[in-house]
C-alpha cells in the first residue's frame, strides 16, 4: 500500500526545501569568496519545517478545489471526489482522476479568481507568519524574540512573496492538475527558499 498523497507531497517538498538551503549555502560562500563548509543544522530546520507544514497546505488546496472547482462540468461529481479526499488518503494514493482536473468542461475563471484571492489574502499571510514562527522555534528562540521577528519581518517577507506567488498560483489553479499542485509549488519554492535562506541568514 502506497503512502497517502499528502505524505508523498510532504516528503517531496521537504527534500526540495533541504536542497534549496544547501544551494543557498553554496551561493552564499561563492558570493563571500570563501571556502564552502556544509552546515547541516539549517538544512535540517528547513526540512522539518516543510515536512510539518506541507500536509495542511495540501488540505488547503483540496478545500479550495472542492469549494471553487476549476472545471464546472459535472460539478456534483467533482465535489464528491474532493469530499472523498480524506477517505482516499486512508486507502492509498489518489488515482489520476482528481477533482477539477480530469473532467472535461469549461474552465470557470470566476472560481480561479476566487481561489487566487483566498490563497493570497488568507493562505499566503498565514504561511508567512508560520514560517517566521516555525523557524524561530526550530532555532530555539524565545517567544519574545519570535514576536519581534514577526513585527520586523512579516511585511517584508509578505510583500516579496506577492511579487512571485500570485502568478504561480494563477498558473497552478488554471493548468496544473490538483495532485501535482503541491509539487509544482515546491519546485518554484526551490528558488524561493534559496532567497529566504539568504534573507534570514540560514546559510
TrEMBL record:
Any one GO cellular component localisation term in the record: peroxisomal membrane
Species name: Orbilia brochopaga
Residue intervals passing through the bilayer: none
Principal location class: membrane
Protein location: Membrane
Renumbered residue ranges of the record's region Disordered: 79-100
Family: Belongs to the peroxisomal membrane protein PXMP2/4 family.
Alphabetical UniProt keywords: Membrane, Transmembrane, Transmembrane helix
Pfam families: Mpv17_PMP22
InterPro entries in the cross-refs: Mpv17_PMP22 (IPR007248)
Protein name: Uncharacterized protein
Residue ranges, compositional bias (Basic and acidic residues): 79-91
Bilayer topology term: Multi-pass membrane protein
Amino acid at each position: 500500500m502506497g503512502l497517502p498523497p499528502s505524505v508523498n507531497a510532504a516528503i517531496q517538498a521537504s527534500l526540495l526545501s533541504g536542497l534549496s538551503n544547501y544551494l543557498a549555502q553554496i551561493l552564499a560562500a561563492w558570493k563571500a569568496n570563501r571556502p564552502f563548509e556544509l552546515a547541516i543544522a539549517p538544512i535540517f530546520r528547513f526540512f522539518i519545517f516543510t515536512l510539518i507544514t506541507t500536509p495542511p497546505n495540501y488540505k488547503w488546496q483540496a478545500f479550495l478545489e472542492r469549494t471553487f472547482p476549476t472545471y464546472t462540468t459535472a460539478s456534483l461529481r467533482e465535489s464528491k471526489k474532493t469530499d472523498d479526499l480524506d477517505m482516499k488518503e486512508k486507502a492509498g494514493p489518489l488515482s489520476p482522476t482528481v477533482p477539477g482536473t480530469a473532467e472535461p468542461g469549461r474552465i470557470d475563471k470566476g472560481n480561479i479568481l476566487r481561489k487566487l484571492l483566498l490563497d493570497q489574502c488568507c493562505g499566503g499571510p498565514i504561511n508567512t507568519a508560520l514560517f517566521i514562527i516555525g523557524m524561530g522555534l526550530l532555532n530555539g528562540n524565545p517567544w519574545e524574540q519570535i514576536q519581534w521577528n514577526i513585527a520586523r519581518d512579516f511585511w517584508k517577507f509578505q510583500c516579496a512573496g506577492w511579487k512571485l506567488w500570485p502568478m504561480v498560483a494563477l498558473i497552478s489553479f488554471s493548468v496544473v492538475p490538483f495532485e501535482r499542485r503541491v509539487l509544482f509549488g515546491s519546485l518554484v519554492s526551490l528558488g524561493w527558499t534559496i532567497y529566504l535562506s539568504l534573507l534570514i541568514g540560514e546559510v
